[in-house]
UniProtKB/TrEMBL annotation, chains A, B, C, D:
<comment type="function">
    <text>Catalyzes the formation of phosphoribosylamine from phosphoribosylpyrophosphate (PRPP) and glutamine.</text>
</comment>
<keyword id="KW-0460">Magnesium</keyword>
<dbReference type="Pfam" id="PF13537">
    <property type="entry name" value="GATase_7"/>
</dbReference>
<dbReference type="InterPro" id="IPR029055">
    <property type="entry name" value="Ntn_hydrolases_N"/>
</dbReference>
<dbReference type="InterPro" id="IPR000836">
    <property type="entry name" value="PRTase_dom"/>
</dbReference>
<keyword id="KW-0658">Purine biosynthesis</keyword>
<dbReference type="GO" id="GO:0051539">
    <property type="term" value="F:4 iron, 4 sulfur cluster binding"/>
</dbReference>
<dbReference type="InterPro" id="IPR035584">
    <property type="entry name" value="PurF_N"/>
</dbReference>
<keyword id="KW-0479">Metal-binding</keyword>
<comment type="similarity">
    <text>In the C-terminal section; belongs to the purine/pyrimidine phosphoribosyltransferase family.</text>
</comment>
<feature type="binding site">
    <location>
        <position position="465"/>
    </location>
    <ligand>
        <name>[4Fe-4S] cluster</name>
    </ligand>
</feature>
<keyword id="KW-0315">Glutamine amidotransferase</keyword>
<feature type="domain" description="Glutamine amidotransferase type-2">
    <location>
        <begin position="22"/>
        <end position="246"/>
    </location>
</feature>
<feature type="binding site">
    <location>
        <position position="309"/>
    </location>
    <ligand>
        <name>Mg(2+)</name>
    </ligand>
</feature>
<keyword id="KW-0408">Iron</keyword>
<keyword id="KW-0004">4Fe-4S</keyword>
<dbReference type="GO" id="GO:0004044">
    <property type="term" value="F:amidophosphoribosyltransferase activity"/>
</dbReference>
Length: 491, 491, 491, 491
């Protein structure tokens, strides 16, 4: 017997992954819009597995909503749920539970949020994070607003309720001008589908054409593919589109700001078949592997991905280095992503059951493992244990992102800074702590090149938000600073 | 808009896959044996996703059982289920529903089956198929046996009940000598764990050591890995092992017969990280890709697997041909295998939601698609549609198994012969029907070589059961012949 | 065969019963207060069977709530629910769904409602009906409040949120001074349990002592009995009690008004073992039967109640008349009250399965049936059919309330006026329409006498609210008048 | 505060009630027969609340079954269950769990049992108890039968399977001639509905006409009433009826024996609206109260039933004695019978929540409480506590059955003899132990008179089975004697 039940797999926590918090989707102009939204959310499930919600509008039956814990496929495929969501206009949301409360009452935190105003109802779904939500919430409560959830996103709907504008689109603008942070918002009134991205365009949002009559908004293009919609274009940073009938009206409600799209969407969050900036995410990730092989070559017998997120970079690394690509670690396909469940015990169980080493293949080999990122380092350590226990001669880690040394405040769940391995150790110290023969991260410049910025990162005007690597936050995290978070000292 | 909702994905049926019907697992000599069985069954879930069952024995609480529809992870991880299964001895079963009845009463068909005999109780779980079950069942009913299920495997327990032997192991021998067909059986009494393979050894079964005190039996070695058990050896064709305390007693109850292990286990059924005949299944599959590239090369830009089962052969094809490997089709990881659900409507839904083309990557490329097999050909046709619709310049199919022209009667779910594409068409006709630029299957000799038989297939004494390709059935399917099935004419 | 399946029972609708809408309960000063609330709500289940909710407060875990459709016994007895409701302070609510929306989203309408204010949270549960809620709601939405439910009671919590008072008790006063209508309210802050009755005291509310340290508020005394609490006194019309620690502080926040307790609580709503005005409700109802026998005697063989609500009056009728009491109609005890479920189809099913005639007893007899009320008359007609079909020689109806000719706007679900049998027919016409040998209602004076007002009803200053019989509404139903309801013309 | 939560109500166990174990129902010759069976079982729910099952037969879909824990109304009213039970022929069963196993596997014990024989399938449902089942089971297992349940009733189906008769009706006769005990059996083949009562006719079974084309068999006439069927006649002791098409064939397969119908059906088990021996059960029970008042008069203010089973006898007692009848104890109508749930903790909870004293009525009064029986005496003691705590001046118990001093072995769940209060105490000792002012049981002669045997009980040839009172067992309980049970010594 090689291992006690419970070790070494039982502590594969998710500290080595950052987690996207949300995906949003909306459809207008097609019958049974909620069914399309369900399909779109299913395609966006990797952005949030804990819960999902859909709101639809039908002229006869008004606004209806359904919110459920669990996967889209387990909830929004059932006739008894979908039949309650009639109409040609619907929006939806999938979420991972980080900000909101947990436990018995948390269904209240599942979006979309709905509000009834004197000129009619509106629903709103939000991907991102508001950096001044705590201050806004306090102010709203003092003025008589009653919050129904612990979600900061609810501020938007209360700000809308208190706007003096007489149409809902204008109220959304009013509300979003008051909030700070990163957001891609999909909203709906009785007749309009609305999409907005914050001025920096931190989170993605794309527009698609559904048949001749309809339109869709989706966090990623893979959400358009699943319903057979045509990808039209990305919503631009700072842009608001209001779709009604066959018209898409574009406005720019915010003060212009430099574009700072989240570079971690390229590394890990987005699906490999999505298109970002005109390129396949898969191709960008493969290119990261190519850059990594150039920057940090090593002599070995096999290049193996840590499945599944390390796969494209491992393919690129193999192609650049000439070292054969192999499936050295097999993922049990009956699990979802490791970080699905929010409670500690299930998460542990999840990881213990997730991966197996291809023992007969690995034995006696020098193995390069390619993973997307290192967060706490605990998973890396356990994977190394698995590989060595199976008889590998050498283990080399190559990481498809720079060291993650700073928390994200823009809609990604990260541990506090002191728990990030790279915040407290050098690369060599990390290598020794994980216990591998070598450990190399791609450089920030290499990552920019792989993402299509041939010149690498311009420190004066970086093209992406890379705060988790650089500590340079494009939007001041004011709530967090009020709580005591210390920004990187200016150099 | 490129496609109507519902097309082209909505008819991706499972006709292009053969389905393994079962996995079996047993553990003796460790506390909470049922928990180990649950983990083992989880690792064997690919062998049967419809339902699972566990029986355990505890000296105080006697035999207990739990049988559930759905995944192991959804049922046998819950405290309220597992707490009802105490003891240091347990066996389990996962199944795909083909032979038994479907619908409301089918839980009766979920194994293990349990019988109470005058000398005590016994439970039995069976992977394979009995080719004389219909005749046996008729005879048993006439003699007063009452069948509780529609499963043919229940014959075994009734034959045991009528045996005049005074201990259960002998009764199992008596019963299994009466049945014909392919079987790997795991059984238990109050004190013994028992494993048996039919004389030809068609279905796999392996023995593992659990810590210092326990033993495990599993359909595949991946079931041992998940619980940290050490792989000891395969149970041999025609062997029966009776494990009690620390002793493993081996006997040979059946007339010796040539070994004819199912070659489709190598091609598709077994997990790539399992070990068969001393080799990684992954490696055998990669080698199939190598042989295929040698036999049927073609000029192209990308080699793409049809995920996930085509992946190892695609890697081998790329390595042999030098054409870059790429993930041209992305599988939604929140689905299981396509053939999970037994009802038509859900199966259709399953496939529509399962795959997406990496459009930005495929556009304008000449693509080689590597898949494991073609059964009805319907899925291949739809995948081709998807790839062309995404703008591929050429589509070439390479299949990691020979044409599937004959049904399996040994525990695999296959359509009737007339529905098998290769039973009615030549390779060229299939290519035209599917509508691709080229279509090539690996030769039977090539497959044998990849599986380690360097000399290729010896028509006088083939090392494997390859009836689905060759029409040569090592065990006469007597029930089927009685129903009118026509064997291949002798040449 | 005497009847087709489906007739004559299948249309036993509930038009012949008025339905109480709510019961409220609260406890302070005992460990696991929510368990006591669950017991109290179970005892008050007759006041609302559709749904229930409990909010509790614990210094460590804050406010928690659980809201469920269905019976208290099916939801608030489970460990997984009750363990989420810790603390020594809790309030709860049971409801019948009349005002709020129905269907998928209606769980939002289940009370208690909770609001977080700048000085802390508060929860509130309401029995009764606000007659100016529509106007208030419109005004609040215009000022930026977001309603989460379709329940008019939610107005109270929004009025509280907008109050400028700095403690919650004062905010409750502010809010309740703005509302019109009938209400008994139970509310809680982090430290206080609060009870209020409207100025007329239309709905009941009583105070109880729980052990040495705790207090309870309950709609009826039967809620105190179940937890072994001592009945202290009724909360008085217009009184507000604020309970903190061992102190009960009483104030009178509203303009004084004459007491007008709902007389239908005496006739039907309250449980027979509750105490109202110092007397057992059972005794009052028995006395109604005595008065009825004096007012409208008839020669017959048996006096039978329409179970179960007609039972006490039938006993009284039998005792006064000397005609033997008998159980001529048997209620299936596995059903609840007929009007449990809010959807038409289930309600119909409910009634078809509910009652059976004691055929062998009834055959050839002259039967007096005593029922509590006649609303639409449809049930009476079907009961008459049942009795005659069983062979009764004569059927005489005696009704323990006067003709119900006006809708209630104070927390009781009544059909619109045109559907009330007594609004459109004389007593003789009703007798003929129902098809019985005689039909007599108790007089309003007789009812007052039975309820302890020896002098009968004083038209100038009636002691009770009897609007449903008299059309004299003590509180102007302003929302309804705005919708077009016509009050009785002044005489 | 009068009582701690948990006392005195929390130990109201069910030791004071005997429990009927089963009800059976069958229908032939009407569309959707299973719906009629569901209604019939609902009317028979008082005979068994733990679980229910229905088997139906349809020429196209064959035999189908559904078995569920819980009430009929909660399971067999749902479309997804009922749609799986097509056909014009169906039988069903409700049960209380006493003999069979409990816990996770017990659904196997829920009847009807089904067997497939060489000449076709058959299903069988059994009310009663076989007194030689243990011996039969042992013999059958030795001969190779495999039992699927722990229910003794399964012997019948195995005996049928081993019969050499060539039609199923004859096989049923064969099987029932081998069993000893009390039984009313309803069975079905593909074309026939079959009913049988044991030679003594211990358990009830009646025949009804359903419309022009159909027939029904039911444990009681109330099952016929609910579906509008006409009561034709009782099946006679020792009679077997085979119903096919429009014909009812009657035979007498057993050695004739004196009729010994269970007298406790009259006292407690049967529903008051059922007809037994041509009389309403209600009327017999009322007459018991009359006899009791003659035998054991006492001066008092009120006669109160212990609800609900004591009600008819209390009415009779009041009518004979002239002491006013009153509802002194109110049952919470949202509970079922106390003995619903088989686990101790829920049972306790059940009783605590069940009854409340009508305090304002009882205070200062001398109260006669009429109950149906005393088993362990524990409930009586707690009811006395409740009544005294509410201020009653005197408490007198009058019991509508003789002292229960012997266990029943014919299908009723009774405690072992040592736990029966009357087996260890005289009437005076019981009075003191319970702690009431007087306690009187009806005499056995009085009970016979009330049941229509004017001459009282003939000790040489009693008309009823009264073993629980007299210790005279008409059928030898051979399994129990083998286990050590001592019969009453011959006098």
């Amino acid at each position: 017997m090689r291992a006690q039940l419970g070790t070494p797999f039982d502590a594969f926590d998710d500290g080595d992954k950052l987690k996207e918090e949300c995906g949003v989707f909306g459809v207008i102009g097609v019958a049974d819009a909620a069914n399309f939204v369900a399909l779109g959310l299913h395609a966006l499930q990797h952005r949030g597995q804990e819960a999902g919600g859909i709101v639809s509008y039908d002229p006869v039956q008004g606004f209806n909503s359904a919110r459920r814990f669990g996967y889209v496929r387990d909830n929004f495929t059932k006739a008894d749920v979908m039949s309650t969501l009639p109409g040609e206009l619907a929006i939806g949301h999938v979420r991972y539970s980080t900000a909101g409360s947990k436990g018995a009452t948390a269904i209240r935190d599942v979006q979309p949020f709905f509000g009834e105003f004197s000129m009619g109802g509106a629903a709103i779904a939000h991907n991102g994070n508001l950096t001044n939500a705590a201050a806004l919430r306090k102010e709203l409560i003092e003025r008589g607003s009653i919050f129904q959830s612990s979600s900061d996103s609810e501020c938007i709907i209360h700000l809308m309720a208190r706007s003096i504008q007489t149409n809902i689109s204008e109220r959304i603008k009013d509300a979003l001008r008051r909030v700070e942070g990163a957001f891609s918002v999909v909203a709906m009134t009785r007749t309009k589908l609305i999409g907005v991205r914050d001025a920096h365009g931190v989170r993605p949002l794309v527009l698609g054409r559904v048949g001749d009559s309809g339109w869709a908004l989706s966090s990623e293009t893979c959400g358009l593919d699943i319903i057979g919609a045509e990808f039209v274009r990305e919503i631009e940073p700072g842009e608001m589109v209001v779709i009604e009938g066959n018209k898409v009206l574009s406005t720019r409600p915010f003060t212009p700001a430099p574009s700072r799209f989240c570079i971690f969407e390229q590394v890990y969050f987005s699906r490999p078949d999505s298109i970002l900036g005109g390129r396949s995410v898969y191709e960008t990730r493969r290119q990261i592997g190519v850059e990594l092989a150039k920057e940090s070559p090593v002599d070995a017998d096999l290049v193996c991905p840590v499945p599944d997120s390390g796969t494209p970079a491992a393919i690129g690394f193999s192609q650049e280095s000439g070292i054969p690509y192999a499936m050295g670690i097999i993922r049990n396909q009956y699990m979802g992503r490791t970080f699905i469940e929010p409670t500690e015990s299930i998460r542990n169980m999840g990881v213990r059951l997730k991966l197996n080493v291809n023992r007969a293949l690995i034995k006696g080999k020098r193995v390069i493992l390619v993973d997307d990122s290192v967060v706490r380092g605990t998973t890396s350590r356990k994977i190394k244990d698995m590989i060595l226990e199976a008889g590998a001669a050498e283990v080399h880690f190559r990481i498809a992102s720079p060291p993650t040394a700073w928390p994200c405040f823009y809609g990604v769940d990260t541990p506090e800074r002191s728990k990030l391995l790279a915040a407290t150790m050098t690369e060599d110290e990390m290598r020794d702590w994980i216990g591998v023969d070598s450990l190399k991260f791609i450089s920030l410049d290499g990552l920019y090149r792989a993402a299509g910025v041939e010149a690498g990162r311009d420190p004066k005007a970086p093209k992406f938000c890379d705060a988790c690597f650089s500590g340079e936050y494009p939007i001041t995290p004011s709530d967090k600073i009020a709580e005591g978070f210390e920004m990187k000292a200016a150099e």
